[in-house]
Amino acid sequence: MQSQFVKRGTPRTASLLGEAAALRWLGEATDEGGMPVATVVSVTPFELVEQQVAPGAATAAAAERVGVALARTHAAGASWWGAPPTGWQGAYLIDHSETPTVPQAEAPTTWGAFFAEWRVRAYLRQAVDAGAIRPDETALVERVAARLEAGVYDAPQPGLLAASGTPVARIHGDLWSGNLLWTSDPGNPVGATLIDPMAHGGHAETDLAMLALFGCPHLDRIIAAYNEASPLAPGWRDRVQLHQLAPLLHHCALFGRSYVPQTLAVARAYA
User: Which of 47, 129, 152, 202 has a Cα-to-Cα distance from 240 of 20 to 30 A?
Assistant: First the structure.
């Protein structure tokens, strides 16, 4: 019998149910060449049981397969900006911080409007409430949010999505390198598995920027293979830190002022 991993939590936001729904939603793309995801064995509001992922080495060849597979997962698309995975709605919970999804009736019409209100401002409010960001520091971040809302930084999705006419990508939503598990499982065609998603309808560049935020093995190979399979829009490198602003604000809310200097430096670049 394959080993199992058990994750326990609070039912306050039904977040474990959301995580299970997110894994299944991302997994819908696996048969079409998308990224493998952790297999859900069972889930309740209190407990999520997954099949254990056999650890393996991060190789350049596997990284190239990750790039192609991630592009195909993104290309599976979502119905609106901020859309939750099928069969669930609510907010993902990490400690005291919530990451909201967007009800269809409230869906913004552009990525910039979504990212400004439902990510940048949502996390900014939490960071201020946690005492990490001082009220006098919020104006800088608000200027970035206003520019986002005005469409200054809106950009096309990568090629596979653009070709299909789907404006919204199906993204992992928390794709730092720790949520990309390299595996030796011979049944895994990529050599890596996605875990711990906060999946929603977003911009594909957000996942790639998150991989870059804290470093990822063979990231250059991942990006190159992704770009070959699904070409990124011109200027994508200039937007990497913009996409990182939301997770940096999230880290301020979770971990305090140690992340504030980096967060404000990024905000200045786009304000």
Answer: 129
Q: What does the DSSP 8-state code read for residue 118? A: I
* pLDDT averaged per 10 residues, the chain (length 271): 81 81 98 97 93 95 98 98 96 91 97 98 97 95 98 98 93 97 96 97 98 97 98 98 98 97 98 97
Q: How many alpha carbons lie under 13 Å from residue 249 in its C-beta half-sphere?
A: 34
Q: At what angle do helices 204-213 and 240-255 cross, to 10 degrees?
A: 60
The confidence score (pLDDT) of residue 16 equals 92
Pairwise CA distance, residues 83 & 103, whole Å: 7
What contacts 24+ positions apart, CB below 8 Å, involve 246-250? 246/115, 246/119, 246/120, 246/123, 246/206, 247/174, 247/176, 247/210, 247/213, 248/213, 249/119, 249/120, 249/123, 249/124, 249/126, 249/127, 249/133, 249/141, 250/97, 250/99, 250/123, 250/126
Q: Per 3-state DSSP, what percentage of the chain is helix, strand, and coil (rounded to 5)?
A: 50, 15, 35
The sheet with strand 40-43 has its strands ordered as: 4-8, 47-51, 40-43
Q: What is the helix (H) or strand (E) element at residue 57, kind and residue range?
A: none
Nearest to 92 by CA among 110, 118, 56, 68: 118
Please give the pLDDT value at position 95: 86
